[in-house]
Amino acid sequence: MMYTHIRAQDASVRLLAKLSPAKEAGRVVVLKRSYHDESYGFRRAREFTMPDYTPEQLANRVTHAPLLRYADALRTHGHRAASIDPLDLLRRERVEALEPSRYGLSDPSAQHNVDGILWTGEGSGKAKQRTLDEITGFLNAVYVGRIAYEYMDLPSKIERLWFAHLLESETTSVMHGAGLDRKRRIHDLLARSEVFDTFLQAKFPNLKRYGLEGAESMLPALDALFGAAARSDTTHIILAMPHRGRLNLLAGLLGYDPAALFHKIKGGAEVEVEDEVASGDVLSHLVASPTLNYDGKEVKVSLLPNPSHLEAVNPVALGKARAKQYSLLKALEKGGDGVMCIQLHGDASFTGQGVVMETLGLSNLPHYTSGGSVHMVVNNNIGYTTPASSARSSMYCSDIAKMVNCPVLHVNGDYPEDVIRAVEIAFKYRNYFRKDIVIDLIVYRRWGHNELDEPAFTQPLMYQKIRSRRSVPGLYEDKLVSDGTLSKDSASSVRTSYKATLNDALAASATYVPPPVKFDGQWSTTVIDGTGVRMVWPGSKEARTFDTGVSSEVLRKVGKGSVEVPDGFEIHPRLQRHVKNRLGSLESGEGIDWATAEAMAFGSLMLGCCDIRIAGQDVGRGTFSHRHAMLVDQKTEGVVVPLNHALVGAVGKLELANSSLSEMAVLGFEYGASWERPDLLPIWEAQFGDFFNGAQVIIDAFIASAETKWLKQSGIVLLLPHGLDGAGPEHSSSRIERMLQLTNDPFTPQPKANVNMHVVFPTTPAQYFHLLRRQMKRNYRKPLVVAAPKGLLRLAAASSKLSEMVPGTRFQPVLPDARTPTDKIERVALVSGKIFYELAKERAARGLEDRVALIRIEELAPFPFTYLADVLKPYTSSRTIPEWLWVQEEPRNQGAWGHVKDRLGAVLNGLGVQGEVRYIGRREDAVPATGTGKVYQAQQRAVVEGPFEGL
Q1: Checking DSSP bridges between strand 814-815 and strand 852-857, what pairing results, if any?
Q2: Where is the Transketolase-like pyrimidine-binding domain (predicted)?
Q3: Which of 48, 181, 256, 830 has the fewest CB atoms below 10 angstroms from its CB?
Q4: The CATH number of 526-803 is which of 3.40.50.12470, 3.20.20.70, 3.50.50.60, 3.40.50.2300?
Q5: Which backbone phi and psi does 884 adopt, to 5 degrees?
Q6: How far is CA 26 from the centre of its chain?
């Protein structure tokens, strides 16, 4: 039986667990492990079946075993001899494995039956007879040319056969017979690319533009990829790329107005915001989101903004792509095949940046996959000034992708038609198997790291070669002119015409006015309390928070549903108490703990048309075994998320994405989802607060600054368990001081201040409940950093009443002392976080409730100037002004003290109070906490006793 190249039977991808595994012609969808199979958002990997070799083919493979070994050697090692390096700098040794004599094949005219060994496209019988010379020529044409393939290391036999059949049965270039229009399209893109870079060099000689010279084939490669996607009914492409060639891509393919570009080069802004000045970003981070048309099929390409931290945007793009798939799934009731993620990389950063490995690690996980990304490495064989020999330990920069069994296609960037063939093969693989694939586009960099750099300082021989070379556009133009595809006049007219366009744009840039910030698409409206509400800029006069309270009936319904399981579902015996305690607190309306408040916040938002996604390690049960939002059947390991099961009629869903042991990529992924969906509450929970250290780049370059740089809103929530409890230096602190330092919170009261992110340290479940709901009950989005509890999760004193969450209640940035201020108050201790409960206990033990007031600042940024002044004012009107204290358990150089000191002074000065706030807490330290138990206890005791000494 002749094996024919398998084709996808349909394009649907099963995104939701409620869709059962399906058997179809030529493939079967199999779930290897049952664990998590019922949870919302679990995306099943597709597995494939195909006809095995026929008995005749198997027999022939045995008979011609030496030939089989020879063919497999070419498939496996052909890349080592292929002509893939334009500069011929790759170290190439003679590949003995490619010699037929090593397999006992010596007679070039000997006939061999290739049935079941090669996939030449012909039928059986005599047509399958080939001489050794013909076989050698055939295999070398496929595997030792200007495209080299690495797929034989894939563990899947089906994938290996897929590649072998495709490559060997379709050996003719995809350009053959494609018509002149396509070749002219390639020429047009290449020629305009060269004109563009030359124009910028002439008009702005001191500009760091990170040009595309030497790698111009990237443009037709992306054009081919966009076209292949569009013709396969992909409607959205999420594109991430670094700086090199970005301006060329924007102007040459993504329709970016050259006048706007020149306006930016001259120092202008990209966009305007009313009553506010956006910082903007550098030229090489500009973006565009055009809708492109290929043969009547439209595809929207969204190039994401990115920082200069190379590769940091990769997980953001992946998260945005998956969130877009879920948006389409809900809106169109179809699978998410309409979205594809494309990631461009540099060769040195692809090997050197750990976020690449972390993001690849997410690519096939059921709560993270977006159905395969196409990776294109624009490979200069040099990073900044470092040669490949010092930049990586592997043969190829793409070898890192083998950690997820990713096939790699290496292609010589000097040959655009071969580049396009590689791109189209890559797309076919991705679109069929829904897995990642890498195109290693081997090119060179005509200038240095930037155009003002002299690369010959460190690479004289490389650049001697480069400077003697004709450009890629010039080489391709010569080829088309010589074969009659293009005349010299028509080739010249492309360049002349585009140069004139650029000159016109340069003139127009003098009067160019950047557009105002615009809210459209999914960001135009949001649903609040069942009504569509127009989204606004966070600093707008129209920005507001809607009521976050919920009726007690709904709260009880949601709370009970959060522990409800299907009949016959057997939970762990120790969780019976968890269920009993929750139901009891709901019935009495008292003793609501953190997990119950969280569940009620989630469920009430789900009823109001909002999805929730909480991601991180062990988030289903919670690091401290407190959440149990996901329950596992003790007999079957089947999983149920009670809120999804019990809230019949809820439009929203709760996705519990237990993640890999990654911080940077996982947080970047959730942040990307927040860019795509304002109707999603995305939460990342660190196992301990300090775990965010591994994701600091995402926090610095995206979460804290994206609104200011790129006018991008996000409702991301970071839950960072915080609090000194004797656990040592590594798991005590969420580094609140770092988060606060990243805010643009004013030091003095400014009513119109638009603070970039909110940092809170709540002390009650009700406060946490309102914070979560506030994220979605606003007509704008803002990142929220929560110094989350550890010891307070089950502390009876830190519980709340149901009445604190009903309509009319809301988050309080400052919690006053429970006792009414009197003239007896001698000290007012201002605190934040869990130390409050230790101080309250100590105060009660000393009988000082009437002499020491404890005021909790729950929201540290934006600093609650007005709220705090209202709470402190009664203490300033007494006959004796009390002493003012700030108490924290963190060391003095850490925690909130550095942030609150001047702001507290501003509040007190505004109330007419002179003097300073006295600090009580640990002294300066290089670590958040000691790891010596006795020392910790002595330090903590001193902090707790400090506010009461001398009274």
Answers
A1: antiparallel
A2: 592-795
A3: 181
A4: 3.40.50.12470
A5: -105, 130
A6: 34
The mean of the pLDDT values for the chain is 90
**CA dist list (Å): 410 to 130, 189, 405, 437:** 28, 22, 16, 11
Rounded average pLDDT over 652-670? 94
Task: Please state, in angstroms and rounded to a whole number, the distance separating the CA atoms of residues 303 and 765.
Answer: 40
Does the domain at 211-271+291-509 match CATH 3.20.20.70? Answer given as no
Q: Could you give the angle at which helices 472-482 and 488-508 cross, rounded to 10 degrees?
A: 140
Quick one: tokens of 485? 């595809």
According to CATH, what is the number of the domain 814-948?
A: 3.40.50.11610
Report the C-alpha gap between 872 and 366 in whole angstroms. 51
Can you tell me the distance from the alpha carbon of 151 to that of 135, in angstroms, rounded to the nearest whole number? Answer: 20
What are the sequence ranges of the domains in the chain?
55-174, 211-271+291-509, 526-803, 814-948
CA–CA dist 788, 858 (Å, integer):
12
pLDDT digits (tens, 9 = 90+) for 362-404: 999 989 999 999 999 999 988 888 888 788 889 899 999 999 9
Backbone dihedral angles phi then psi of residue 250, each to the nearest 5 degrees: -60, -50
pLDDT digits (tens, 9 = 90+) for 231-264: 999 999 999 999 999 999 999 999 999 999 999 9
d(CA 789, CA 130): 73
pLDDT, position 115: 93
Mean pLDDT of the region 436-459 = 88
Report the candidate in 336, 320, 342 with the shortest Cα–Cα distance to residue 426.
342
Please state whether beta strands 297-303 and 291-294 pair in parallel, antiparallel, or not at all (unpaired): antiparallel
- Which amino acid, residue 356? V
Q: Which amino acid is at 802?
A: L
**Closest Cα partner for 350 from 429, 471, 241?**
241
